[in-house]
Amino acid sequence: MASSEPVWTRVIRVVAIFVGMIALFIVLMTLVYSLPQDGIIANAADSVVVMLDEGMYPTRILDDNSYRLDNYTDALMMDIAVRDTEQSAFVSSVANIHDNALRAGNAVDPLLSLAATAVGQRQSPAPYAYYWHGYQVALRPALMVLDYTQIRYLNMLLLTLLVAFVVAGLKRDAGGVAAGVFVLALAITGYLIVPMSLQYSNMTYLTLVATLALMLMLRAGTFQRFTMEFFLVVGMLTSFFDLLTTPLLTLCMPLAVLLIITSKSKTKPLSAYIYLTARLSAVWVIGYVGAWVAKWVLATVVLPGDWITLAVKQVLFRTGMDGGTAGPVAAIVQNLTRLVPTAAVGTLMIVAGIVVLILVVRFRRPTDEVKRAAIPMILAPLPYAWFVVANNHSSIHSWFTYRIQLVTVFTVAYFLLSMLDMDRVRAAYSRAVLRSPEPVPGEGRLAAGPEDDPGAPEHELM
After folding, report:
1. Which of 38, 209, 294, 394 is at 20 to 30 A from 249, Cα to Cα?
2. For 425-443, what is the mean pLDDT?
3. Distance CA 183, CA 199 (A)
4. Which residue(s) pair with 290 in the sheet?
5. CA distance 167 to 208
6. CA-based R_g, the chain, Å
7. What is the pTM of this model?
């Protein structure tokens, strides 16, 4: 049920959460930069050997840029993990020093920079202070005992476990269709190479954890009271961990699951779901942008220079507002085409889509159920709104920003497959192929959700 507490009480709690989270970020970063770093340096040295062998942007699985790793950024992240011992742990955690070694042509080369840093020969140290670099909370401890290859294997294990937990939660609370199309969406957006990249893994971890936490809180009946606070914290954590990779996923995937579950248990007008989406998106944006601005202010207070002005210039560059950009249309097109890495994959997607549409025409569910399945598609356009706003960044880095479209693939596929009456499909298959009697009504339903579970709680958030 909607909270009946006074508005001012909730406002005070939200402000307290925001201030407390910023304080937590500062403490965590200071603590992690206080760790001994002999092991970090040794494993960074071993890691750069692997990166130099692979090259700056190696491809894996498919020889296409959609399956390209970003060793450039991974080397930068490891370089930042090596603390400048002339500074205190606190200042180091704010400054995030790295080297700027140059290769032929005077271009900065993070791989050469990391190689120099690992042997104590930083030539051109520079701060990178307009991001929080919160991933160091995990990366520095990991580097104390693991090198790059070992971290990749650990990522594979942990991310696979998280995906399995999320799929199981979706099957239980949102239905089999939701669980199945989530796996499909991961496959289409190149998930298989994500664990091989430090940068790609950051937002994937947070997206999966946030989605799983949302489902657990809904099941426990505690989510309704802290809906806005949840999305505020997720937005702030996104700002803390991210390097502008796929931040929107941490909003859209939990929100998509929320819309699916709440629309299954209690149908409301579409306008109510649009309002809920707008309200929670605004809260996430406040957390994301607010935490980012807090780091700019902190850096300006602690370090030489005007980091607020420097950060604003970066924002103007990323959004294309300083000129020299390909523009929003090009950004959208480039990210869309990344979903089809090869002609064979594109052909398979077209054929599968045609088959599903034919089946939908023949075996469509009742109109009320179709309308309910369409509700999560409110979120389908949001990745393209992101590409429009951050068009310069989305154009330059389309080979990883395209993964934001995970939510588009998820919600569209969920809608199409939810339109199918699987009992009728199975009955037709039995008659035409197996020559067996029609199945018992209700047998073999593809998607079991809260409406099928009399013990499941109803979720009313609006």
Report:
1. 294
2. 62
3. 21
4. none
5. 10
6. 24
7. 0.90
Burial class (CB in 10 A: 0-12, 13-18, 19+), 160: exposed
The CB density around residue 130, as the number of other CB atoms within 10 Å, is 21
Number of residues that make up the chain: 462
How far apart CA 273 and CA 368 sit, in angstroms, is 16
Q: What is the pLDDT of residues 2-55, one digit of tens each?
A: 456 777 787 888 999 999 999 999 999 999 999 999 999 999 999 999 999 999
Phi-psi category of 117—alpha, beta or left, where left has phi over 0 and alpha has psi -120 to 50?
A: alpha
pLDDT reported for residue 268? 81
Q: How far apart are CA 151 and CA 157, in angstroms?
A: 10
Q: Which residues contact 217 (CB under 8 A, 6 or more apart)?
A: 223, 226, 230
Measured CA to CA, the distance from residue 251 to residue 264 in angstroms comes to: 20
In angstroms, the CA 117 to CA 107 distance is: 17
**30 phi/psi in degrees, rounded to 5:** -65, -45
Helices (H) then strands (E): counts for the chain = 21, 2
Q: In whole angstroms, what is the distance from residue 299 CA to residue 310 CA?
A: 11
pLDDT at 446: 39
Distance between CA atoms of residues 163 and 253, nearest Å: 13
420 three-class SS: strand
pLDDT of the residue at 458:
58
Confidence band for 455, pLDDT divided at 50, 70 and 90:
very low
Handedness of CA 366, 367, 369, 374 (dihedral sign): positive
Amino acid at 251: L
Q: Which residues, in sequence order, are bridge partners of residue 68?
A: 59
CA distance 91 to 137: 15
Instruction: Give the separation between CA 135 and CA 240, rounded to whole angstroms.
Output: 8
The CA–CA distances, whole Å, from 409 to 66, 83, 191 equal: 16, 41, 13
Tens-digit pLDDT profile for residues 344-392: 888 888 888 888 888 877 877 777 888 888 999 999 999 999 999 999 9
Is residue 89 scored above 70 in pLDDT?
yes
